[in-house]
Amino acid sequence: MTNNLDSRTVSAGDRQRSRSYHREFWPGIAAYVVLVSLCPLLTRAADGSPWRYLWAVLPVLPALWVLRAVVRHLRRIDDYQRLLMLRGLGVGFGLAMVASLTLGLLELAGLDLPTGWIVYGVGMLGWAIAAATAARR
Amino acid sequence: MRNNLKTLRLAQGWSQGVLADRLEVSRQTVNALETGRYDPSLPLAFRIARLFEQPIEAVFLPDPEPTTAGSAR
Questions:
Q1: Which of B65, B49, B26, B9 is nearest to A81 (CA)?
Q2: CATH number of this structure's domain B2-56
Q3: Biggest CA pair distance of chain B
Q4: In terms of Cα–Cα distance, which of A101, A92, A102 is closest to A122?
């Protein structure tokens, strides 16, 4: 009986909060993937026109939707989970800054790299790994 | 800070998930509280005490005073 009471199954509240988060988060990611795939086609079609800048930044809209989902999730969860999530974000931010500094120095040395994408990737990966590590505890 | 949360929960026959729902926190938070990895905020500590109908000092106990070399002498 004690084993059953110590089970690590999620609570009804956890399930509900998680469902709400996924319901808001994944449509944003799906829209982002679609727009990122369409972006090169749209910008190429508008080559030479100022419209190409608008098409180029179109994926920012679903990214803002995803950010909204994360903020709403932060407001739904309790203090401890918020602490873990913000700690993960902090790790991601720290790694992104270190990556940015490293790449900046490499650029000064003459190396040509897609700096923005690498910084973004390192930051997101750092956040994801820190959040996954915290969730396993 | 130490606490008697696990003892109180088991006495009620509740799983961590059930206690989490009653406190409106996650099961992960209940686990962190029981294992001493997380000290609750004051509002949560009062909610826990109210739920178990115990005074707050019966649920949460201060860590024992560290014995220093100076005081041992």
A1: B26
A2: 1.10.260.40
A3: 50
A4: A92
Same domain, A12 and A73: yes
What range defines the domain where residue A94 resides? 78-137
Which ipTM did the prediction report? 0.81
> How far is C-alpha A3 from the chain's CA centre?
37
Two structure tokens written together for A30: 């799906």
Q: With beta carbons under 8 A apart, name residues in chain A contacting B26.
A: 10-11, 13-14, 17, 77-78, 80-81
Q: How confident is the model at residue A115 (pLDDT cuts 50, 70, 90)?
A: confident
Cβ contact B27:A22 at 8 Å: no
Question: What backbone phi and psi angles, to 5 degrees, belong to A55?
Answer: -65, -35
Other Cβ atoms within 10 Å of B64 Cβ, number: 7
pLDDT single digits (tens) B15-57: 999 999 999 999 999 999 999 999 999 999 999 999 999 999 9
Q: Which residues, including other chains, have CB under 8 Å from residue A56's CB and lie 6 or more apart? A: A39, A43
Provide the terminal-to-terminal Cα distance of chain B, rounded to the nearest Å: 27
Number of domains in chain A: 2
pTM: 0.78
Q: Which helix (H) or strand (E) holds B61?
A: strand B60-61
- Does B36 contact chain A (CB < 8 Å)? no
Interface list for A 65-94 with B (CB within 8 A): 77-81, 83
